[in-house]
Amino acid sequence: MNASRGKSACFALLSAFLLSGCNAVKLGVMNHAGPIAASQWRLYSIVAVVLIFVAGPVLLLTPLIAWHYRLSNKHNAFRPNWGFSWTLEGFIWIPPTAIVIGLAFLVWSYTHALDPYRPLVSAQAPLEVQAVGLDWKWLFIEPDQRFAAVNLLVIPVNRPVHISLTSGTVMQSLLIPQLSGQIYAMAGMTTHLNLAASRPGVYRGENTQFNGAGFQNEKFNVVALPPADYDRWVEQARASGHPLDAAAYPALFRQSSPPQPIVFSSIPQDLFQRILVQSTEPRS
Amino acid sequence: MTEGVWPAVLGRFVWHSLPFVRAWENPTASEIIGAGAASIVIFGAVLVVALITRLGKWRSLWSEWLTSLDHKKIGIMYIVLAFVMLTRALIEAVLMRMQQAAAVGSPGFLAPNHFAQLFSTHGSIMIFFMAMPFLVGLINYVMPLQIGSRDVAFPLLNSISLWLTGGAAGLMMVSLVIGEFSTGGWSGYPPYTELAFSPGVGPDYWIWAVTLGSVGSTLTGINFAVTIYKMRCDGMHLMRMPLFVWTALCTSILMIFAMPPLTVATALLALDRYLGFHFFTNDLGGNMMNYANLFWLFGHPEVYILILPAFGVYSEVVATFSSKELYGYTSLVLATAAIALLSFTVWVHHFFTMGQNANINAAFGIATMAIGVPTGVKIYDWIWTMFRGEVRFSVPMLYSLAFMMTFVLGGLTGIILAIPPLDYLVHNTLFLVAHFHNMLIPGLLYAMLAGYHYWFPKAFGFRLDEKWGRISFGCWVAGFYLAFMPLYVLGAAGMARRTQEVFEPAFRPWLYVAGAGALVLFCALAFLFVQLWVSIRDRDANRVFAGDPWDGRGLEWSISAPPPEYNYAALPRVHGRDPFYEAKRKGNPYPPPASYDDIELPKNSKTGPVIGVVGAATAFGLVWHMWWLAVIGVLAIGATVIARSFARDVRRIIPAAEIERTERRWLRAEAEITPIPRAVETTPANRGLAEVSG
Q1: What is the structure's pLDDT at A281?
Q2: Is residue B376 less than 8 Å (CB to CB) from chain A?
Q3: Which of B113, B295, B317, B388 has the most A C-beta neighbours within 10 Å, making it the best mutation to test the interface with A?
Q4: Please, which residues 131-170 of chain A have a Cβ atom closer than 8 Å to chain B?
Q5: What phi, psi does B277 have (nearest 5°)?
Q6: Which among B524, B543, B562 is the end of a domain?
Q7: pLDDT at residue A284, as a whole number
Q8: Which of B16, B300, B402, B669 is the most exposed, having the fewest neighbouring CB atoms within 10 Å of its CB?
């Protein structure tokens, strides 16, 4: 009785363990939520099929041949001085070369199609976002809406988003696995990332480039809202948050990760440009 | 008064620099582990010194090993260094895996800075002070024997390279006891490692350890390349060289061209940190991407520096243990050269995410995939070498088979990473970590262990224990799969590398499996040491003095085990690709020389140890801003080099009579040994003489 209860408890625990393990892949590109990530997943699937033909022969032939030609198997041909065959050379060199040439076309076209700098094709004008990597948080500025938030990026569904990135500190890299790939953010330089969300939801984002003791805390959520909800959210943010004024500004550059996202109801003029210039000035 | 004197003497050293003081003031698990590691280093050093003193071995250690210019002894010392450093870096890996497994939604037991030091030292050590010394040691030991030479071209330079590497490794160990190490990873990317963001001693330890090591490796590359070009015996044409020598040659050329960019990168970073330059700073026109380019201009060829000798080992092992000629020798040579050349054309794939245009990314992505072709060719060449052979599943062969099956998986994920749009997703994640461990553990480490098992009987005259070898092998393979396959999943789910704390409960099961894998890998290393101990204990039962325990094919098996210090009583003359194999079939494998002549060998020299120790002391002075020490060190190195240039009496003669005695003793012993068939080669019946068949 006790033993069987123990066993079923063990089983329950194990299955919970396995289930939570499967949840891990849902956080990645397999569970894509935007056109860029969807294309990346499609490309991955194509490549995965090709790769079966690359690895398959090696994975089959290595154990088969090694076992078949083992010393104790005396029924085999033994040709110790055989070491070359033009036919085999053809089999060894030509198919891999052909596969790489084939993949080269795929790489060329997809690298251009999924260039993070390429604007998404859409009837709507892209939402402009400026992202600043700081120690150990992200500042997201929406200049047209004239507000900003720390560790929170709210975007409307189905509208392209164009993110300009820089860093107010060391190099960082912005990754939102369910929406798109990553791009570096570097002080004094601007990089670009185009993406969109195709369904409402909350998506995990992070910095993947180690930047010090608070690196692991540098995570944020991307919230994709239906357009009407997004507009409402912007109104609310601009009405209820604190302004990013001279008192709040220096705190951004202190090494810290806020436990909760912070929303700023208003921002100074040309905030992004100001940080861009500031980070290349001599440090006193 | 004291304020003026002590800072000048001690530089920036304060009591707080000692991990013991830090642990006393702040007794957290993290600090106590740090102090524990420091005490292990001190305790280990004291133990070694006490043991040598008690055994009265200082004099023989100094005159027979530390000052020796014999390529065989230098090779062995490199490999001992590699094992010591492997032990430390593997323990660090286990600690990191335990931390991540424990830190799902909790801070775990290692503080973020401590964790960052661990991944920085783990990477730096595994590349510069484990992999490099291991392969350089193996080449040092084997290559001159394989080309029928008595030494490398520049024996003194060889000793200096060893000691520079050893001094740098010593600096890594000192950083555990005094101060702290860099938190900037093995690649040390600025601006994080610049003064503005990392003012402490950590990045300086990294800079000087890597600089000493990279200078040593450049010199080694020159030494090996000249040796292979100039010191081959009669008849050893380039296209008759064993494949291991070919890979050694390509690796040496890569070292000559790829190490200097690293030395330049660390030197420029040092100028930034020490003299206020602005090469890679955020401000005043610095640009960190210049560092990234320089670093990977070294870093990508570096991975082929590591993997090519591994391919060489596999070529030797697969042919020997299949009792068969290597399939497609010419293809293998061409593939090796192609890989060496292509390795300089792909460095940008380490930063596809920099924001360059799609043409550049696509071009570098395609170049990267192109390397897959010659690599694939090599794998097939080894498969067809086994074809129509007689395969024996000895330990080196098991490593080779595990390598072929596992390396191909790393190749697949390599192709995924080579495609820029897919790299954007998994760059900087655990997927990348899994990929390069998938290349380096089955690729490099298995090869080094295969080579260690394969050539150990040659170097020490007895075989390694087979049973413990198999157990250890099983752990290296099972541990690898357990530790790194979960990381692919975690990386695909977006888990960033170098993460001290994890906030996703879904990652927990995978981190547990990876943690278990790390423990299995640790057991694998422990069993390797058990094997060494058991083998030394049972050495008399497993002696192979005759020198040919595996029915070998190359020249290195045609002499006694261990070989005499002069290698060959008379320099050999070869007529084909597998000279010793052919000689055995012709019935005259051990021809006594027509006459015995005096042999001239280089005398021992203190120059290497002095330069290594003083180099490390200079680096230590620079790290701690003890300028007096740095100045004295630089002057001392200059003085040593000048003093050495006045030494005239640098050669010693081994008289013909002594050589004759040694050779006759070996040939007499050989005549009494029964040749054995391959089926019993792993039993004590194997005395190092092969029964000739086929």
Answers
A1: 85
A2: yes
A3: B388
A4: 169-170
A5: -75, 175
A6: B543
A7: 52
A8: B16
3 state DSSP class of A228: helix
Q: Which residues of B touch A26 (CB under 8 A)?
A: 493, 506
Using the Cβ of A17 and the Cβ atoms of chain B, whether some distance falls under 8 Å is answered with: yes
Q: Is the same domain home to B272 and B197?
A: yes
Token pair in block for residue A164: 């300009």
Q: How many CB pairs under 8 A join A and B?
A: 311
The SS3 call for residue A141 is: strand
DSSP states of A35-97 as a string?
Answer: HHHHHHHHHHHHHHHHHHHHHHHHHHHHHHHHHHTBTT-TTS---TT----HHHHHHHHHHHH
Residue B384 lies in a domain: yes
Q: Quick one: residue A146, left, alpha or beta (phi over 0 = left, psi -120 to 50 = alpha)?
A: left
Q: Taking a contact as any Cβ pair under 8 Å apart, which residues of chain B between 588 and 617 contact chain A?
A: none
Using a CB-CB cut-off of 8 Å, the residues of chain B touching A187 are 191, 282
Q: How confident is the model at residue A4 (pLDDT cuts 50, 70, 90)?
A: low
Note whether B422 contacts A47, CB cutoff 8 Å: yes
Q: Which among B306, B312, B339, B309 has a CA at the least distance from the CA of B436?
A: B306
CB B504 to CB A44 under 8 A?
A: no
pLDDT at A129 over 70: yes
Distance CA B314, CA B43 (A): 38
- Domain limits at B139? 57-543
Q: Phi-psi category of A19—alpha, beta or left, where left has phi over 0 and alpha has psi -120 to 50?
A: alpha
Q: Which of residues 171-190 of B touch A (CB under 8 A)?
A: 183-185, 189-190
Residue B631 lies in a domain: no
d(CA A40, CA A107): 12
> Is the Cβ pair A92, B328 closer than 8 Å?
yes
Instruction: Give the contacts of A107 (CB within 8 A, at least 6 positions apart).
Output: B362, B365, B366, B369, B418, B419, B420
Quick one: B574 and B493 in the same domain?
no
The tens digit of pLDDT for each residue in A146-182 reads 999 999 999 999 999 999 999 999 999 999 999 999 9
Write down the number of H helices and E strands in chain A.
Answer: 6, 12
For residue B694, the model assigns a pLDDT of: 54
CATH label of the domain that carries residue B273: 1.20.210.10
Note whether B216 and B269 are same-domain residues.
yes
Question: According to the model, what pLDDT value does residue B1 have?
Answer: 44
Q: Which residue type occupies B668? A: R
Quote the CA–CA distance of B184 and A210 in Å, as a whole number: 8
Tokens of residue B489, six digits: 């999943």
> pLDDT below 50 — which residues of chain B?
1
Last residue of a domain, one of B491, B511, B543: B543
A280 vs B283, B416, B421: nearest CB: B283
pLDDT for the residue B340: 96
B558 and B526 housed in the same domain: no
Q: Closest chain B residue to A217 measured between Cα atoms?
A: B501
Which residues on chain A are in Cβ contact (under 8 Å) with B389?
Answer: 69, 78, 80
Chain A residues touching B357 at Cβ < 8 A: 115, 117
Residue from the list A79, A83, A186 with its beta carbon closest to the beta carbon of B288:
A186
Q: Is residue B593 domain-shared with residue B449, that is, in the same domain?
A: no
- Domain shared by B311 and B167, yes or no: yes
Q: How far is residue B227's CA from residue B149's CA, in Å, rounded to a whole number?
A: 9
- Look at chain B and report how many structural domains it folds into: 2
Query: Is-contact B141 B455, C-beta < 8 A?
Result: yes
Specify whether B592 is located in the same domain as B522.
no
Residue given tokens 């210090």 in the structure block: B565
Give chain A's mean pLDDT: 92
Residues 6+ apart with CB under 8 A from A228: none
Query: B507 and B596 share a domain?
Result: no
Q: How far is Cα of residue B68 from the mean position of the Cα atoms in its chain?
A: 20
B611 inside domain? no
